[in-house]
Amino acid sequence: MSRNNLQLYIHLFFVTKYRDYLITDRVESKLHQFLWNKSLELGLTPLMINGIQDHVHLLIKIPSTITVAAVVKKLKAPNSRFLNELTQSNYFEWSRGYEAFTVSKIDISFIAEYIRNQKMHHSNGTVNSELELSSHLLPKG
């Protein structure tokens, strides 16, 4: 085989500092669009981005040339600056940690649909604990 065929899908999850409700209706769509565009700029393939007031989920396809840690670093820091400039404040900050899970190609549709329906899951109690933050893994702040 003379060609590589890599299909590396990652479900990323990160939260606001102190789990504060910083992702307001005013900035939510701009945040998601920024993450989408930044993903493309980094050579990633974004498949779904959504979340609620204190966290965001991303389903992305990554190339073999970038690590998950580098992806997170290159997504989180620039969008914090972007949101602080957008809101003309200095309040927006992500928690230092994150979670990342590999996703089988067969599960992409399921994970994407789950991410798409974040608000519904959180409002009606149908949150899937395996697809949400393991709060004990992230330090507060």
Automatic annotation (TrEMBL):
Protein's organism: Nonlabens dokdonensis (strain DSM 17205 / KCTC 12402 / DSW-6) (Donghaeana dokdonensis)
SMART domains in alphabetical order: Y1_Tnp
Every Transposase IS200-like domain range: 5-118
PANTHER family attached to this UniProt entry: TRANSPOSASE FOR INSERTION SEQUENCE ELEMENT IS200
Pfam family, one: Y1_Tnp
MF GO annotations: DNA binding; transposase activity
A GO biological process held by the record: DNA transposition
Protein name: Transposase IS200-family protein
